Amino acid sequence: MPDSPASPPSTASIPRRRHLLALGLGSAGLTALARVAPAAEPRPATAATLPLTAQTTEGPYYFDAGKIRQDITEGQPGVPLEVRFTVVDVQGRPLAGQRVDLWHCNAAGVYSGYDGQRDGQHDGQHDDKGQRISTRGQTFLRGSQPVGADGVAMFRTIYPGWYAGRATHLHLKVLDPAGRAHLTTQCFLPDALNEYLYSQLPAYRRRQVRGTLNSNDGIALMAGETVLGAVREAHDRYVATLTLVVDPAGTAPREGFSDHPPPGPPPMSRDGRRPPPPPGQGEQAAPAAGSARAAALIPGVRL
């Protein structure tokens, strides 16, 4: 993403400027200022609170793989991605001792551990021509990490692919040591970067054009800005970050999906939330190419 053409001056320099001004006034000037400036009335301390991270649907492809590990790749091809979640309460205090579960699809849009999925590398995701595959018994791109004293849980994985009906996303849960989930949500990644990777790299490339973007994914739109991850480039990987603001006394809603989800994209949420566009609708809603698609991909662009 390009940097802003101009950045406002740092407010950190303001106290120093005032300090230098006071030194220039000398003792007489300081005495005069003290006479003019009334004593500040004491104010009660108020702690600003952070907005809770939005809960979203769990989706049908979650299971506890029982793997406490940072590297969840298991040899899956794709662009290296480091994921760093910072878990805090509404006062911004780290919630050390919690656990974060992370799971997501591979470059072809397939999750580990389930039958009846379609490999996104083949044509025909909306009919019976696509290749049905099974990943039952596999645990790639799944793992858990404890939250450290700094509030951070870190994973090494690959950049996720996509499948019809959904924007690019990572699934995650925040659980306490007893296994109770306080947060179930999804992390959405920048669409301009998604587009570049999916169009340039063989592991991700498709003949189809993605129809569902952050700008028209129903789950992303309902959850809002608290689930939008930031991505920066490191020497040998991308680094995705998201702060998760969690109520440690709260409980994430349960969904009760079957262990054998139907083929194709995950079904809709059962908790009453507005569902994402069904397969096919997103493709019609999102522009296929040109300046209109660029505007749909890049936040703030109006062409």
Task: Report what the structure shows.
Keywords: Dioxygenase, Oxidoreductase. Pfam families: Dioxygenase_C. GO terms for molecular function: dioxygenase activity. This is Intradiol ring-cleavage dioxygenase. This protein has 303 residues and is of the alpha+beta class. The protein has five helices and ten strands. It has one domain: Aromatic compound dioxygenase (Protocatechuate 3,4-Dioxygenase, subunit A). The strands form three sheets. The protein has a four-stranded mixed β-sheet with strand order 6-1-10-9, with no helix packed on it. Strands 5-2-7-8 form a four-stranded antiparallel β-sheet, with no helix packed on it. Strands 3-4 form a two-stranded antiparallel sheet. The longest helix is centred in the first third of the chain and has 24 residues. The N terminus is likely disordered.
Structural class: alpha+beta
The main pleated sheet reads as: 4 strands, mixed
| CATH architecture call | Sandwich
Instruction: Specify the helix fraction band.
Output: 10-25%
Shape: globular
| Structural Rg | 24 Å
Strand order of the largest sheet: 6-1-10-9
Order of helices and strands: HEEEEEEEEHHEEHH
Please give the alpha-carbon distance between the first and last residues: 17 Å
Return the domain count: 1
What's the β-strand tally?
A: 10
Residue runs with pLDDT of under 50 for 5 or more positions: 1-41, 122-129, 257-284
Percent range for β-strand residues: 15-25%
Helix count equals 5
CATH class annotation: Mainly Beta
CATH fold category name: Protocatechuate 3,4-Dioxygenase, subunit A
Find the CATH superfamily: Aromatic compound dioxygenase
